[in-house]
Amino acid sequence: MVLGAETGLIVLEVKDWKRGRPPEGLGKENPLEQAKRYVHGLQDLVRTRGFPVLVEAEGSHQKDLVFPCVPAVVFPYLTRDRWEEEGADLDIRHVLFREDLTPEFLLKRLSGLARLYFPPRLTAAQVDFLRGLVAPEFCLEPVSAAAPPRQLDPEQMQLVTTDLFLPPPEQRLARDLSVRLVRGVAGSGKTLLLLMRAKLLHQLQPSWRILVLTYGRDLDRFLLDCFERLAGDPSAVQITHFHKWCRDLLVEAGEWKDPLKKGERLALVAEALVGVEKAWGLGAEVAAEEIEWIKE
Q: 246 pLDDT exceeds 70?
């Protein structure tokens, strides 16, 4: 959700599609319809609990929200040109593409989404009220029954959402060196447990070289920040993502080769398919996508 005086409330359904249609195996549900469902739920919430601050009390627009509540879809890996070549049937006015997600364009696009309905006219107090409705976890108890709830500022929100506390059972897991595999749902503390284990290993074996690998490029920076906040020594533990680690090893060994560009990969696959393409019913592009999936 994006919330602001200049944008109203915008619900963004983000899809990591590499092409203009969902990858094989995923549902075919229209992503804009998904966003609309979330919008309807939020509108019901505001009508129920936002009266009369955020809902028109009288006149021809009685019971309407005083701000636009807009659904939209974001394709961070797709350009508008690629979508127009092969994309599904979506209202293009409600879609943001890769080129829209730059600092110079993003706010303009978000403001433009709001104005598809009507210009937002939220005051700072109304923005805070709305924020309290859609994100109650960032609200504190009011000073008195007549006062509005106090809200955490952005720095306080970050502290709350990146809490470094682990319950005692998980702390014991981090210290139990016989435990080699930890599973758990998102947010259950697996990452924090891993960092605590790395810190413990360095304390027990200062001469060891300790490596922490992630799969995502952004996650390694987050882990390094958390490790330093845990009072870990960043010079003692290497935290990086898997592909960079592989590349560094190959460069050091003098065996690095630049990966093939997309066109070169397709040509190689097409060459390999000669003689079997018709029998298998596979084109080069489909086969290349299957290879990418297997590699992942």
A: yes
